[in-house]
Design goal:
The protein has 269 residues and is α/β, with parallel strands linked by helices. Helix content is 41%, strand content 15%. The relative contact order is 0.14.
Length: 269
Amino acid sequence: MSLDTLPPIGMGTFRLKGDDARDAVKSALSLGYRHIDTAQMYENEAEVGDGITASGIPRRDIFLTTKIWHDRLHRSDLINSLQESLAQLKTDHVDLALIHWPSPDDEVPMEEYLNALKEAQKEGLTQHIGISNFTCAQMDQAVEILGKGTLLTNQVEVHPFLANRKVVEHAQALGLTVTGYMPLAVGKVMEDETLERIGRKYNVSPAQVAIAWVASRGIVPIPSSTRPQHQKANLEAMELRLSDEDIAAIDQLDRGERIANPGFAPAWD
């Protein structure tokens, strides 16, 4: 498998700690996931590294993403933090390093941290670089600083209740792959009547419908689950092809419901 691009679905590890994180990563890899997503802020990089080691899957066959937290964005700090992440993950490189959030109030100039990220890539600490939670204007600025084709992805919140259409379409127009986190809206998709109804039609769960809808938009979903049966179902959702009518019905669920919205978040589009 070529690891030059993001695999079509990933295993998210947000909120997974200790043995839960270890076991979930190991189980996901054994089921066929090849894309594992973590971050410095999740405080589970060591456990994610353990799960990868324990899985027996060769490191070269796994696409591993981590994210640099906004308190480590100064040039020297960013490179050091990434080296610390690699030590925790027990690897000599990640496949993708992301800026987790744009610097709050531009405390660190974007030029400084993006060029530091590019430097980390040159040093071989990461194969690809990208951004997360960037607005349309911030994406434009980032592409202007680094040039087109340098950034692989913008990872943003996407689920049926937050289609995030403006940002998704803008990213794709700039040639960025969109990675969608929280595709299941932290479980809220399970209680939605429309998703339940569509699920019955295909004999699948509302969660599988939500993942298929995210994927139908050319977005890489990274659902998080500790249970092997849910991980397997999430993987199988990638085979589901929804009708245009079903997609249109799910499009109607967008209510701008943002779950990840810390006080330091940018002014959203």
